[in-house]
Design brief:
monooxygenase activity; 13 strands; Luciferase-like_sf; TIM Barrel; oxidoreductase; globular; 10 helices; alpha/beta; Bact_Lucif_Oxidored; Alkanesulfonate monooxygenase SsuD/methylene tetrahydromethanopterin reductase-like flavin-dependent oxidoreductase (Luciferase family); 35% helix
Length: 339
């Protein structure tokens, strides 16, 4: 059995053929898709966060709105780029959204990927300290965020406050109990997966990772997951961790599906997401259901994960994306034992 969610990048563009032509379209359709996905029995609604782009840049108002319109489905991110985040303000936003959703947030955070502008986090007021890289800064922000959402008091109260304070040091409010266990780290390397395990974060591994061994993508990713689980066990955490992988998977059920995805790439690809860092990008899966079942059964990383996030073509509209999800839930997932 697996939890199955969707992952939307929230693209919008006024280009011809786009069903998501504005920022308002992207936001409102994301909420509608979460509602539709919940009705279908999908387990999670996740959004990707990018700044300076025609995508979903500010996740917490959206997550709160999704939470207010749904009652069961998990709501998450994959991922929030911690180079851009004030950990304290983020803790307040996350606590508020989680309370509105009734404790259903699953927040993926990470160092992030190359953005639309050079060093975009500088425009947000952040810069690495001396001797620190931007990746180091992201991990530092993440560690502070994890600490403050634990709910322990740390701030000295004003002796003459505007409102009466509880005794002792003060914590950030609103505090949402249990949120700390629902933070995930998006890891592109084995080393950062191990680091995430030591800090007690769940693991998100996407459709790309740094090419560390030259092996096929799903094998490298499966090894990353195993290394993470070993580090988790060694750290002595008491709860069972969660692991997600994301994939582009399309069941070709009709002519429209074949028109959109019949020619999708069926092999891994290599590229450079940074000047000196080669990455491997996982293949897309697009075929008739019986062929999909045969191909997906060979994916070692999906087998290792407890959660599968299906990337969706959000610009094709809510109805079509609901069809994509329903096709996988109905015609593929049961044959693989995911349902």
């Amino acid at each position: 059995m697996k939890k199955i969610g969707f992952l939307s990048f929230g693209h919008w563009s006024p280009a011809r053929g786009s069903g998501t032509r504005s920022g308002a379209d992207a936001l409102l359709q994301s909420i509608d898709l979460a509602v539709a996905a919940e009705e279908l029995g999908v387990d999670g609604a996740y959004v990707r966060v990018h700044h300076f782009a025609r995508q979903l840049g500010s996740p917490f108002p959206l997550l709160a709105a999704m939470g207010a319109r749904t009652s069961r489905i998990e709501l998450g991110t994959a991922v929030i780029d911690m180079r851009y985040e004030n950990p304290f303000y983020m803790a307040e936003d996350a606590g508020s959204a989680d309370l509105i959703a009734g404790g259903r947030l699953q927040l993926g955070i990470s160092r992030g990927s190359p953005e639309q502008v050079i060093d975009g986090w500088r425009y947000f007021g952040y810069a690495p300290t001396e001797g620190e890289t931007d990746a180091d800064m992201a991990r530092r922000h993440a560690e502070v965020f994890l600490q403050v959402i634990e709910g322990e008091g740390f701030a000295e109260p004003n002796p003459r406050p505007m409102f009466a304070n509880p005794p002792g040091l003060l914590r950030l409010e609103p505090y949402s109990e249990g949120l700390r266990d629902r933070i995930w780290w998006g890891a592109a390397t084995d080393a950062t997966a191990v680091w995430a395990a030591k800090l007690g974060m769940n693991l998100q591994s996407s459709t790309l990772k740094f090419d560390e061994t030259g092996e096929p993508f799903h094998i490298q990713q499966a090894k990353q997951i195993r290394a993470y689980r070993e580090a988790w066990k060694a750290a002595g955490h008491t709860r069972e961790p969660r692991v997600s992988v994301s994939r582009s998977i399309f069941a070709l059920m009709n002519d429209q599906d074949r028109m959109y995805f019949g020619g999708s790439a069926d092999s891994d690809s290599l590229g450079f997401i940074e000047e000196n860092t080669r990455a491997i990008f996982g293949r897309s899966y697009a075929a008739e259901p019986d062929k999909l079942v045969e191909e997906l059964a060979k994916d070692e990383a999906i087998a290792e994960a407890d959660t599968l996030l299906l990337t969706v073509p959000n610009q094709l509209g809510v109805d079509y994306n609901a069809h994509v999800l329903e096709s996988i839930l109905t015609h593929v997932a049961p044959a693989l034992g995911w349902r």
